[in-house]
Prior knowledge:
This protein is of the alpha+beta class and 311 residues long. It has two domains: 8-168, GAF domain (Beta-Lactamase, 2-Layer Sandwich); 178-310, Reverse transcriptase/Diguanylate cyclase domain (Alpha-Beta Plaits), CATH 3.30.70. 44% of the residues lie in helices and 21% in strands. The chain is built from nine helices and ten strands. The strands form two sheets. It has a six-stranded antiparallel beta sheet with strand order 3-2-1-6-5-4, sandwiched between helices. The chain has a four-stranded antiparallel beta sheet with strand order 8-9-7-10, with helices on both faces. The longest helix is centred in the middle third of the chain and has 32 residues, at 137-168. The relative contact order is 0.10. It binds guanosine-5'-triphosphate. InterPro entries: Diguanylate_Cyclase, GAF, GAF-like_dom_sf, GGDEF_dom, Nucleotide_cyclase, Rev_trsase/Diguanyl_cyclase.
Amino acid sequence: MLHPDQRVFEDKDGLVPLDKWQKTVDVMARIFQAPAGFVVQYTPLGYQVVIASNQESNPYPAGVEISPDTNIFCKKVVQQGEALYVHNAPEEPEWDTNPEVAEDGFRSYLGLPVNWPSGEPFGTICVMDYEATDYRSDYVDLVGELRDLIEADLEILSQFQEISNLAMTDDLTGLYNRRGFMTVASHYTVLAKRSGLSLGLLYLDMDGLKEINDQQGHSAGDQALRTLATAIRSVIRENDVPARLSGDEFVILAVARDKIELDTLSERIRSVMKENSLSVSVGGVLIDAGRTLEEWLQLADKKMYEHKHSS
Ligand SMILES: Nc1nc2c(ncn2[C@@H]2O[C@H](COP(=O)(O)OP(=O)(O)OP(=O)(O)O)[C@@H](O)[C@H]2O)c(=O)[nH]1
């Protein structure tokens, strides 16, 4: 599922139908004759305006961030998980410290919670007015309908993410499979090059898996593969990219300044495996410009092979 902390405003893949949401919010503001309408996302970083109605009277453009401690209307909607209609905020002392009231001069707010399919809060859809308002109840129902449209998009988004995750991960270990590795690792090598990060590639091949299968059964073999995946996860950093390429072959694309760092990583995996009476052969290369990812993989595989047959 799409991670609830992932900000949709920063969606670079164009999966979030922001244009459609923009039209929805513009129509909503027009129907309410309200000077500002929004879709706002909540994450632990705070509240971010994802869509702002396209009007000069609207002081908050899309992208604006509001700290999670600020006493804004949307915060109450997210915290309580229910609709909030404030007819005339200056009459309610709890909004004295709300900058939307105290600084921008808003008086009226109507907002509904928007949730991810999991039920976790996504944020809100809301309209605000500089005048006190008295909306008819069917207007309030209308915001509910628009909220449902946005929630339906979030559902599609989550399903899409789930399907791509399935196509990119290995069932047995939960690591990336070859397709996932090639996709993520090629993005990562481009980013690393841009930011001057140096990367290394480790190629790992479990020793004697056939023997384990033959002597202890296939499920013991599966367990040995999972142990290697766990060992890999326990030593890599958050941004490193681990994968099971096939059968007993694994790779890690990892941040590494030099060969020593890469060797240390490999030694730590070997030592965790040893604690489990298992063994793995590892070959490592530092990546620099001039070769494709596929070529680096072949080179690391060759080093692993040399290592396996020298010991
Ligand atoms: N249990 C289990 N075995 C697998 C899986 N995928 C591949 N294998 C087995 O892994 C074995 C790999 O054999 P080899 O390539 O000879 O590897 P090895 O026995 O580890 O020998 P070396 O790599 O030379 O150390 C084969 O017997 C495959 O059937 C899997 O998902 N689960």
